[in-house]
Q: What sequence folds into this?
């Protein structure tokens, strides 16, 4: 009897375990139709499958591919009393329409609309290495390498549901091996999954590949043999994958090879690749993330403009310059990168980081859409040809490590389609799709998400402080960080410049003059201590500890107040989450695992926020009143 009881218990536990929501279904519809819906008509393979499987409405849906009806990936949904009609001029357009209809179905609000994507290029960038590790990945090993995960189709589908139409599938610190025949065959397999969902495959390349792989004595972009090698390689790639998208290149940056190794310019390097890709319609995305090479000693945040502005106008038409949103490196708050002001003749793309390298990685609840919207308030989407987001996915059950980090992937995709959407609307949408439509849950959690980025800035690096992280892993504070054998640009002390007089980096016209790279009115605004926005104060100015802030407090007091506020905010987020437990379980009684996992991480975030406050304030306090 006892044994039977035990067995029953184990079986029950197994059933519970099998049903527990692990977050793997993301924001996508969970319940399939038992038999494919016959209400859906049209000839478009993937879109048709998607709707037949998940569309549950009583109204017939008709899909119409109409050449020249709309441009590119745009689509129209018309809801009448008799039917729902989806129209587009490309199969991708219909696919996006199908996903939109399913999203509206999940949200309980199906209506007519016409949608046009803001950017032609809506890309995810993977920093995945061929050995399965992921640079700055916090959600387990790579889903792509060394062997393809069985979640590949789900992955492509999730991206397509947001309108993502391209994926760079390997790290920008690229292995030359990626272009070997053996690996290109694997790339073809990945491509076949992506292609089905209208996603093009792109590769990061190592600039020295002609040497490492082709056995040539040089990778000089002006060498005829090198040029020939690239042409042949590109031709071979297109024979395997006629829909291949092109290359992403990190050159002469952080030790990567590049044209500078041969005293050639970035334009020489990019144009060589562009020439090889051009006949196939491929593009080159050339990164502007460079420092420490040609402009050694110059303020790091100025170097991209110094390097690329003189080359503007020299790039072939299928080259796009890809620049991070800020001039430094994905900090919790940076001013926008002045590359977007200074590069006017070459198409620009912005690179955002979905993976939270400097924002608590996958341990902190930090919703990034408000930060990206802040960027778009300075750089008009119309100035950009495309948008790229560094992926935050891995083999973890929930894909992203933190359940709420899924929201950043989701928000990136939604903003890549329409940067005009509000961060709040996206948060609400994601919460409803992912947890429950219950307003008693959605309202407070939207508020938490919306406040989370500013809270992170406050408990990590308020008032324009930046890059005071621990070396290497970039997690946790190290304001005193200095290693004599490291480049100065990696050392926290270089960035805050604290001394007995004050704190902050003087980048005004009396300092490094980085402010001069900005267009007006920002140039003057940032340059003057009295008009510089306080949230960027220590980015642009070295400010006396006793400086009177707008609040009437001294700088030191204000700094303390921000750290306190950040910590208090995380405490509050945790309280709200605890109140949410019954609502999460009411919506889905098998959701205790997700609730608990978020709970555990919020507790960790509370501790970590306290550690930031304590370490930074103790460190800065040591300068107050210190002898000069
Ligand atoms: O953000 C920094 C990261 C590096 C990264 C580099 C880059 C891929 O710390 O890990 O390398 O930037 O963007 O090239």
A:
């Amino acid at each position: 009897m006892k044994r039977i009881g035990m067995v029953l218990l184990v079986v029950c536990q197994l059933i519970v375990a099998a049903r527990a929501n692990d977050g793997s279904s993301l924001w996508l519809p969970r319940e399939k139709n038992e038999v494919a819906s016959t209400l859906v008509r049209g000839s478009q393979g993937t879109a048709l499958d998607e709707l037949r499987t998940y569309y549950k409405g009583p109204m017939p849906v008709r899909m119409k591919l109409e050449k020249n009806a709309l441009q590119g990936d745009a689509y129209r949904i018309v809801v009448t009393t008799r039917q729902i009609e989806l129209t587009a001029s490309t199969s991708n357009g219909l696919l996006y329409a199908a996903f939109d209809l399913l999203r509206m179905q999940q949200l309980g609000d199906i209506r007519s609309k016409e949608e046009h994507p803001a950017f032609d290029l809506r890309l995810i960038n993977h920093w995945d290495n061929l050995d399965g590790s992921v640079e700055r990945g916090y959600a387990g090993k790579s889903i792509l390498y060394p062997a393809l995960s069985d979640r590949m189709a789900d992955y492509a589908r999730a991206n397509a549901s947001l309108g993502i139409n391209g994926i760079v599938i390997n790290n920008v610190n690229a292995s030359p091996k990626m272009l070997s025949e053996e690996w290109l065959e694997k790339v073809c397999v990945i491509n076949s999954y992506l292609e089905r969902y209208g996603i093009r495959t792109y590769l990061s390349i190592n600039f020295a590949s002609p040497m490492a792989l082709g056995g040539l004595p040089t990778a000089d972009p002006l060498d005829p043999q090198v040029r020939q090698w690239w042409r042949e390689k590109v031709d071979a790639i297109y024979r395997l994958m006629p829909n291949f998208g092109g290359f992403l290149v990190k050159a002469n940056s952080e030790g990567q090879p590049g044209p500078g190794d041969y005293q050639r310019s970035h334009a020489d390097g990019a144009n060589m690749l562009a020439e090889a890709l051009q006949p196939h319609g491929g593009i080159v995305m050339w990164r502007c993330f460079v420092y420490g090479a040609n402009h050694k000693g110059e303020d790091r945040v100025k170097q991209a403009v110094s390097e690329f502005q003189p080359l503007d106008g020299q790039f072939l038409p299928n080259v796009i310059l890809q620049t991070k949103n800020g001039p430094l490196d994905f900090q919790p708050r940076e001013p926008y990168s002045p590359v977007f002001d200074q590069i006017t003749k070459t198409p620009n793309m912005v690179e955002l980081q979905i993976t939270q390298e400097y924002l608590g990685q996958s341990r902190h609840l930090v919703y990034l859409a408000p930060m990206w919207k802040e960027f778009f308030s300075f750089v008009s989407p119309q100035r950009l040809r495309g948008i790229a987001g560094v992926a935050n996915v891995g083999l973890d059950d929930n894909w992203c490590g933190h359940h709420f980090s899924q929201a950043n992937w989701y928000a990136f995709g939604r903003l890549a389609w329409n940067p005009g959407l509000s961060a709040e609307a996206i948060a609400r949408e994601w919460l409803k799709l992912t947890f429950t439509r219950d307003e008693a849950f959605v309202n407070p959690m939207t508020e938490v998400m919306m406040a989370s980025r500013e809270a992170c800035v406050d408990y990590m690096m308020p008032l324009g402080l930046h890059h005071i992280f621990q070396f290497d892993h970039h997690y946790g504070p190290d304001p005193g960080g200095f290693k004599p054998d490291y480049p100065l640009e990696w050392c926290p002390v270089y960035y805050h410049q604290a001394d007995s007089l004050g704190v902050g980096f003087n980048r005004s016209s009396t300092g490094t003059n980085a402010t001069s790279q900005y267009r007006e009115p920002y140039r003057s605004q940032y340059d003057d201590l009295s008009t510089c926005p306080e949230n960027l104060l220590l980015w642009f100015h070295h400010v006396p500890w006793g400086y009177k802030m707008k609040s009437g407090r001294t700088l030191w007091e204000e700094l303390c107040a921000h750290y306190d506020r950040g910590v208090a905010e995380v405490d509050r987020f945790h309280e709200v989450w605890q109140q949410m437990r019954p609502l999460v379980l009411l919506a889905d009684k098998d959701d205790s695992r997700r609730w608990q996992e978020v709970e555990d991480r919020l507790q960790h975030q509370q501790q970590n926020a306290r550690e930031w406050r304590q370490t930074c304030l103790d460190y800065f306090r040591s300068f107050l009143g210190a002898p000069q």
User: Anything to note?
Assistant: DSSP finds 19 helices and 15 strands in the chain. The first strand starts at residue 40 and ends at 41.
